[in-house]
Amino acid sequence: MPKRALINRRPWLLASLIAAVAYYFLRDNPIGEVWLIVLKGMGVACLAFYAMRRGFGPDAQILAAVMLFSALGDMGIEFDFALGGGLFFVSHVLAIWLYLRNPRDNPVSLQEALAVVLLLATPAISWLLSGDLMVALYGLSLGGMAACAWMSRFPRYRVGIGAVLFVISDFLIFSRLGAFDLGDLPHYLIWPLYFAGQFMIATGVVQTLGGEHPGREKAA
Length: 220
Prior knowledge:
Blueprint: H1 2-9, H2 11-26, H3 33-54, H4 57-79, H5 81-100, H6 109-130, H7 133-150, H8 156-175, H9 185-212, H10 214-219
Helix pairs in contact: 2-3, 3-4, 3-9, 4-5, 4-9, 5-7, 6-7, 6-8, 7-8, 8-9
């Protein structure tokens, strides 16, 4: 049964989903600010443990570090926006390193063009939405992460699209800083888009690595 298989073979994924869904529905409730911050961080932190448990080799370790710094960023941003941004910047740099270690063979011109658009348009849109130069500089690392994910050998319809969802979720955050008023849209969409993106990235990378080492995947 798929549900039991998830519990028995992917407990960290299940824990990640539970934490993420719980945070989404409890974040506006007065259950304690510190507990909510911890719950928020647990969603992606569990993906880091999933990468360490199910992955193989240095690429899995880098992925775990990517997810760990993202989880720290999720919590840090609740204390200070710049602190959270700095932690996510480290996460993006590590992700870029991971994807550059795993380039796609013989990419087609259209996909290369889309990667260039992600690299250049992301910081430009970040600046237009926020009006903040530092946010635009952060957007350069965000766009670099998404562009490298798109050009990596990992599945585009998992890892590449996951990275794009991450970018869109950050755009919604940046819209709160500038003159663009999107109403309640950011409040409802930022977390689902962000977490779905991270979930797709983690599972896409880990399953690719596991497919190359079936003995390790079966034993994990």
